[in-house]
Amino acid sequence: MAKKMNQGAALNTRIWTLFEKAGFQTMPNSQSPKEFEVHHSSKQRPLDLYATDSNLGVTIVGSNKSGKISGGWSAHINDFRTIANKAKADAALLIVTSIEPSTVDMQFASSQNITVRTEEQIGYFEAMVDSHKTIREIRDNTQPWSLKRPYRHQLPNCR
User: Fold this and answer.
1) What is the CA radius of gyration of the chain?
2) Phi, psi (deg, nearest 5) at residue 113
3) Mean of the pLDDT values across residues 62-84?
4) Percent of all residues in the chain with a pLDDT value above 70, rounded to a whole number
């Protein structure tokens, strides 16, 4: 019997899968559960998401929270900013799915160059990535000549 994934592990999988589908190289990923780690405060600290796109020249790190943020919002934001810097990330993304951050919390995260996304926003991005993937698959699997406009005599009920 397969072991049931807890909420945190399920969210982590959901987020790296989203970035992998969007074309990023991620850690962890569908080939390996290994997380990218940085050395901070005398220990190795794993990142929930480490996503890179060499064509864009961008690295994004993520912290995913499916429950309460232990230690408080400010402490987590400050700690995550330090870890993102050590990972040499171009962007830091905090995903929160069970709390609605206050305006003050959002402003503090923004002041630390951390983007916060909620459950609703992640659902939107998943739909966008899935739609784009579907469009890309249709385009890649459609022969160019099948997209040509038919001649009038090829249409039904036309003379």
Assistant:
1) 21
2) 60, 40
3) 94
4) 81
pLDDT at site 76: 95
Is residue 56 in a domain? yes
Residue 69's domain spans which residues? 7-121
Looking at residue 39, which CATH number applies to its domain?
Answer: 3.40.1350.10
> Would you say residue 69 lies in a domain?
yes
Residue 82 included in any domain: yes
Token digits for 95? 């995903």
Q: Report the 10 Å Cβ neighbour count for 112.
A: 16
Query: Pairing mode, if any, of strands 25-27 and 49-53?
Result: antiparallel
Looking at the structure of the chain, the number of domains it has is 1
Bridge partner residues of 50 (DSSP):
27, 61
Contacts of residues 35-38 at CB distance under 8 Å and 24 or more positions apart, as own/partner, are: 36/61, 36/87, 38/83, 38/86, 38/87
> What is the reported pTM?
0.79
Q: What whole-number distance in Å separates Cα of residue 27 and Cα of residue 34?
A: 6
d(CA 43, CA 150): 65
109 domain residue, yes or no: yes
Of these ranges, 93-97, 130-134, 136-140, the one predicted with the greatest mean pLDDT is 93-97
- Please give the structure tokens belonging to residue 66: 């499916």
